TrEMBL record:
GO terms for molecular function: ABC-type transporter activity; ATP binding; ATP hydrolysis activity. The chain holds residues 312 to 617 of 634 of the full protein. This is ABC transporter ATP-binding protein/permease. It is found in: Cell membrane. Signal peptide: none annotated. Residues 54-288 form the ABC transporter domain. GO terms for cellular component: plasma membrane. The keyword Transmembrane applies. One of its GO terms (biological process) is intracellular iron ion homeostasis. Keywords: ATP-binding, Membrane, Nucleotide-binding, Transmembrane, Transmembrane helix, Transport.
Length: 306
């Protein structure tokens, strides 16, 4: 009986371990609010490590056959560079990041990471190479430490603190009653959007991916929070190939290339200076946002004076 029991016991242990792994992956997908629709190709091999070059080649995509969302998108981001994607709501900006993370397969064209078509590599290896700082991070019902260390399970206390410092969230954590042991999430302490985003940045710094997707928050932030987040973002995107889904144009000024999406196509592309000089769609968006910012600042100043 013992001979029979032992392997079963080991199996039970292995099952729990695997289940835990699956649960965490599923939890992550649920947290990201994305379905899992793609499967590994039978001959899929792990992504071969490289410097992090990224390319979209005539990428087409539709969620439903009757409505084309991306109608032939091409761009290349050299290793370590930043590409910003701007455009009106519904233009397909987030769809580009979902395709890169391979939540869906393209309906035409190719996406290449370090020269390798992403549908031919294992999803696990692809997702290990890409870090995502989402617009609205949902935290696990666990400690702050767990939520940061999730980026690299097994990270030491020192590594977690170092990442939190770079992400400008360490001082905030130190002011909490239980520091890094403070419970957060729906059933714990609720953090503001900016605080949650900095936790996500710390998590990504620990994960140390070669490609980064930043999905900027649409919500307006106060100037101080905005500055802290900008500093955190600069840390995480330094020397990393970065795709920014930009909602606030202030963050795209420094991008190496900006693409303006409109109706599933690239309407304009270039650096900030080039696009301003072109005086087209981007220049118009820039003018409108600058006016909105100036008005908000004037209103805030009037409130202080009153
Ligand atoms: P925003 O700036 O508002 O975030 P976006 O440019 O990121 O917009 P996407 O989220 O990429 O836009 O969406 C592009 C289009 O695809 C939208 O019209 C949207 O309604 C549609 N869409 C997005 N997700 C799905 C889905 N899962 N199923 C069907 N249509 C979808």
């Amino acid at each position: 009986l013992i001979q029979l029991y032992m392997p079963l016991n080991i199996l039970g242990f292995a099952y729990r371990e695997i289940k835990q792994g699956l649960t965490d992956t599923e939890a992550m997908f649920t947290l990201l609010g994305e379905p899992q629709e793609v499967a590994d190709a039978p001959e899929a091999t792990p992504l071969v490590a490289g410097p992090g070059a990224l390319a979209f080649e005539d990428v087409r995509f539709a969620y439903r056959p009757d409505r084309q969302i991306l109608k032939g998108i091409s761009f290349a981001v050299p290793p370590g560079r930043t590409l910003a994607i701007v455009g009106p709501t519904g233009a397909g900006k987030s769809t580009i990041s979902r395709l890169l993370f391979r939540f869906y397969d393209t309906t035409g064209g190719r996406i290449l990471v370090d020269g390798q078509p992403i549908e031919r590599v294992t999803q696990h290896s692809l997702r290990a190479a890409i870090g995502v700082v989402p617009q609205d991070t949902v935290l696990f019902n666990d400690t702050i430490r767990y939520n940061i260390a999730y980026g690299r399970p097994g990270a030491s206390e020192e590594e977690v603190v170092q990442a939190a410092k770079l992400a400008q969230v360490h001082d905030f954590v130190m002011r909490l009653p239980d520091g890094y042991r403070t419970m957060v999430g729906e059933r714990g302490l609720k953090l503001s959007g900016g605080e949650k985003q900095r936790v996500a940045i710390a998590r990504t710094i620990l994960k140390d991916p070669r490609i980064l997707i930043l999905d900027e928050a649409t919500s307006a932030l106060d100037t101080r929070t905005e500055q802290e987040i900008q500093a955190a973002l600069r840390q995480v995107s330094a020397n990393r190939t970065t795709l920014v889904i930009a909602h606030r144009l202030s963050t795209v000024v420094e991008a190496d290339e900006i693409i303006v999406l409109q109706d599933g196509r690239i309407a304009e592309r270039g650096t900030h200076a080039v696009l301003i000089a072109a005086d087209g769609l981007y220049a118009e968006m820039w003018r409108r946002q600058s006016e909105a910012v100036a008005m908000a600042e004037a209103a805030a100043a009037a409130q202080v004076a009153a």
